[in-house]
Amino acid sequence: MKNNFEIAKNIMSIENLKINLLGKVYSLFKAFNEDEAGEVLIDNLCDILISAYLLGEKLGYDFEEMDEQVIKKLKLQIIDKNFDGDYNFSGLERYIKGRKRE
Which BP terms does GO give this entry (predicted)? Predict the structure, then answer.
């Protein structure tokens, strides 16, 4: 019975993180539409990043593993250049690699 309780608790945690993540994405878009100050935007962006990392952890990935996957995706973006516009993929890759040394 204890295992069932733990499974249910874990599922609820995952669902709460998914709801939180969607809510923060909604808040971010709402802030864009209302032309909010930069502090509101960065607050929502930070909450989205935190929720994404915590959700990944609940799904069985550790933070370092997620960073490694982000670096792989950034390298692909640098090579493929699929995005229109000027994005700093290389700078983000260097930043993530640099914080691993700390």
Answer: nucleoside triphosphate catabolic process
